[in-house]
Amino acid sequence: MIQFTEMPASIAALPRDDRGYPVPWFVKWLDGKPEFRVMDTAKWRRAVREKLCWVCGERLDPRSHVFVIGPMCAINRVSSEPPSHAACAEFSARNCPFLSKPAAHRREANMPEGGSISGIPILRNPGVACLWFCRGFEVFPDHKGECLIRLPGPSMVRWYREGRKATRAEIMESIDTGLPILREMAARQGPAAILALAQAIQRGLKFVPAA
Asked: Per the structure, how many domains does the chain have?
């Protein structure tokens, strides 16, 4: 039997898959089954337009948004997913198999049509998840004409690993192993991008907790 941390009522009301996991609102259903790797793009648009929680689909408080992101998104302040309620975001960070199990890998084989991710996705499992508390966000087009979200500065961040609070060493390990990917991207774009990334790294490191 799957053991979850305390489940918000909004998540308890969601349908379950065959294993007993709640199926987040954003998940695409194909042939009557949830395909966790694919987000429903129609729900993405609704979430942004109507300010709905990405996890449970209920209305968000306009004064508070919480994004569940990886360390590289905390550096470049870009997310492909809309925000959630704080309780839904924390439950996801602590219980989602991909987010809470560093050894878990996203299955790329037999990806359904339309299963692409906006932007230039970093498909590795970062091992830690960041909850980014902020107010508001900005939608902008990526290089493919699809939409991404630019995050404002946070009022607070929380870091999780394996369903618990992450240590500074764990967060820094994830950042250090992910930065080469961002540096390679910046190098392809030229000196201005390299400088902007260096500034973003210094800005992002301020939100890593002290040892």
From this structure: 1
Domain span holding position 64: 9-102+118-166
Tokens of 144: 């493919």
For 28-67, the pLDDT digits (tens) are 999 999 998 899 999 999 999 999 999 999 999 988 899 9
60: closest CA among 118, 137, 151, 141? Answer: 137
Quote the Cα angle for 105-111-115, to 5°.
100
- Distance between CA atoms of 163 and 40, rounded to whole angstroms? 26
pTM of the model: 0.87
**Using CA atoms, how far apart are residues 98 and 127, in angstroms rounded to an integer?**
9
**Beta carbons of 54 and 74 less than 8 angstroms apart:** no
Distance CA 152, CA 84 (A): 15
